[in-house]
Amino acid sequence: MSARILSLHIYPIKSCAGIDLSESPIDRAGLAHDRRWMLIDGSGQFMTQRQWPRMALIRTAIGDGALRVSAPDMADLLIALDGSGLEAGSETVTVWKDSLPALRESAAAGRWFSDFLGTPCRLYKVDPAARRPAKTDWVSRWLDAHPDESERFSGDHHFGFADGFPLLVANQASLDDLNARLRAKGVAEVPMDRFRPNIVVQGEWEAFEEDHTALIEAADVRMAFVKPCTRCSIPDIDQRSAQQFDEPGRTLATYRNLDIGVVFGQNAILDAPAQARLKVGDAVAIELDF
C-alpha cells in the first residue's frame, strides 16, 4: 500500500483550536505540546467544547518560547513554555475517570479565559511527574492479539490531557466517504478539523479500512491502532464559527454506530525512536489486521 501523511495537528489546550504543522517531534506521549494544557471550571470539572462551544474560537500558536493564545476581542495572552509562569505546588485534576497531578498557570491566565468564556475557570499544565497511562484494557487486548509486536509496544504509554490515548489518526478516504453521503443529502461537506485528529493519512487506504488495520509506520515511528475513536457532539461544531449543527453526527450515526458507539478515526499508542520526527509527506506503511 502506498500512503503518506497528509497533515499533522496539535491542540495545545484541550478542546481549543489546533495548530497545523509541517513537522513535529513525537514520542510515546504523542506529538510535542499536544493537549498539555486544560481548562478547569469553577466546580473543578475539566472544560470542553461539549459544554463550551466558544472554546473553538480560542486560537493557539507556539514560538519564541511561548504559547500564544488569542480570541476575538481579546488581547493576546502569552504563556511561557518553560513553566516560569506556573504557580507553586501541584494539584490533582480529573479527566473523565483519570486523576493526575497538574500545575496551575498564573492568575492572569485564568482571568483571560474567564473573561472570554464568561465563567470562572483556571488553566492547568500537565505536571512532568504525571504518569497517566493509555487505557490498559484496550492496550492489553491489542498486545494479546499481536504477540509479535508485544516487545516494541509493551511498557508505559503515558500522555497528557487527551481523552484516552496519546494519538488520534484519521483516514482522508473516510472523510471523503462521509462527505459524499452529506452531499447526497444536500448537506454541506465538513473539513477534517471537525474530528480533531493528530495525523491524517491519504493514499491507498480505502474508506474505513482503518477498522481493519493493526498499525501504521512512518519515519520509523510505529502507531498501533488499539481502539476506534467514539465520537461525541464536537464534530457537529464548526471549528471556525463555534456554531453547533446536527451534522455530520446524524449521518455518521446511520452507518458508523458500532457496539462501543459512533466511531471515526483510530486511537493509537506509539513506539518511537529517540528524537523521532514526523513530517507532512512522510511515506506511511499500513499493516492490515486480517
Q: Could you characterize the architecture of this molecule?
A:
By secondary structure, the protein is an alpha+beta fold. It has two domains: 3-33 and 132-288, Beta Barrel (M1 Pyruvate Kinase, Domain 3); 37-126, no CATH class. It contains five helices and 21 strands. A seven-stranded mixed β-barrel has the order 1-15-14-19-17-16-21. A four-stranded antiparallel β-sheet has the order 5-11-10-9. Strands 4-3-20 form a three-stranded antiparallel β-sheet, with no helix packed on it. A hairpin with a 2-residue loop joins strand 18 and strand 19. The radius of gyration is 19 Å and the shape is globular.
**Lateral arrangement of strands in the main beta sheet:** 1-15-14-19-17-16-21
Could you say which overall geometry the principal axes of the C-alpha atoms support? globular
Largest sheet: 7 strands, mixed, barrel
Radius of gyration: 19 Å
CATH topology name of the largest domain, in short, is M1 Pyruvate Kinase, Domain 3
